[in-house]
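quick q for whoever's on today - can somebody do inverse folding on this one?? i tried earlier but teh output was garbage lol. tokens:
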């Protein structure tokens, strides 16, 4: 266990943002926290890193204790959804500033700043003021700031919001490389394709509650429902949910001339709709 959330509750003006949430994040995995806007993902991240105190429950990191302790927080890197950058400092000055906050100094600070900027592909922009960067570059710098002190646990809260396709793909590659290096990552998103591409396990939450937790394949197997056979007969399209599409296609072919057909397999969006009954992007 790298991160444990035990029966967490957090309310704002009496409204629950996190409602009895319990889960464990394993060392070296990319753990997806999936849900629509307002599901409680960002509040969960803030509780996990000690920025918020739960009304009830506990957070523990890797046997070190609560992130309320500065020594425990030093093991965590956070790239928040709201960019944590200084617009009128340069790219390098931002990373160095946050490195100093994490107790780096001297040659070690200089080396880690260089490595972090190289990792996110911004070394050649090190002298640029942040306000001159594109949205995608700012997101990549946000990641560099989170990684400068080599944290064991990295929490990424909607890290691809508003970025261009090239920067988005670069961030994906960075995340997969972090896993290869043995880091543990908590990745919050409401984009289904990101969770399917990146995550070893996915927790689906809504209204602050945990609805399901499994591998992507496990979620699909237990919550997605049957595949859909889509066939065209006499110019009309028909959709049939079936666990045996080949048998269904053969049955229809005996009495009708099937012009076209395709099979639509369940995906994470279907899992979410089946669990919550509502759309992902509210």
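ok took a stab at it. sequence:
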């Amino acid at each position: 266990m790298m991160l444990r959330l035990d029966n967490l509750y957090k309310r704002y003006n009496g409204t629950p943002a996190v409602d009895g949430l319990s889960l464990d994040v394993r060392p070296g995995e990319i753990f997806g926290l999936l849900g629509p806007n307002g599901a409680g993902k960002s509040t969960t991240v803030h509780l996990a890193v000690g920025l918020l105190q739960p009304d009830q429950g506990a957070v523990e990191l890797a046997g070190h204790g609560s992130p309320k302790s500065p020594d425990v927080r030093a093991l965590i890197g956070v790239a928040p959804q709201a960019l944590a950058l200084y617009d009128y400092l340069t790219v390098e000055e931002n990373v160095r500033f946050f490195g100093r906050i994490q107790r780096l100094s001297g040659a070690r600070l200089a080396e880690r700043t260089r490595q972090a900027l190289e990792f996110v592909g911004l070394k050649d922009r090190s002298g640029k003021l942040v306000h001159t960067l594109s949205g995608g570059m700012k997101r990549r710098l946000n990641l560099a700031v989170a990684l400068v002190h080599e944290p064991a646990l990295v929490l990424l809260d909607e890290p691809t919001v508003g970025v261009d396709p090239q920067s988005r793909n670069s961030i994906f590659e960075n995340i997969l490389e972090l896993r290869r290096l043995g880091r543990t990552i908590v990745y919050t998103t409401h984009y289904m394709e990101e969770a399917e591409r990146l995550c070893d396990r996915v927790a689906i939450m809504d209204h602050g509650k945990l609805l399901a937790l499994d591998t992507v394949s496990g979620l699909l197997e237990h919550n997605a429902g049957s595949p859909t056979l889509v066939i065209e007969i006499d110019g009309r399209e028909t959709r049939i949910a079936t666990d045996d599409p080949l048998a269904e296609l053969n049955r229809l072919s005996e009495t009708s001339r099937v012009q076209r057909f395709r099979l639509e397999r369940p995906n994470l969006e279907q899992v979410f709709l089946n669990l919550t009954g509502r759309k992902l992007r509210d």
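fwiw The CA atoms of residues 75 and 201 lie 22 Å apart. also The chain has a mean pLDDT of 92. so keep that in mind when u check it
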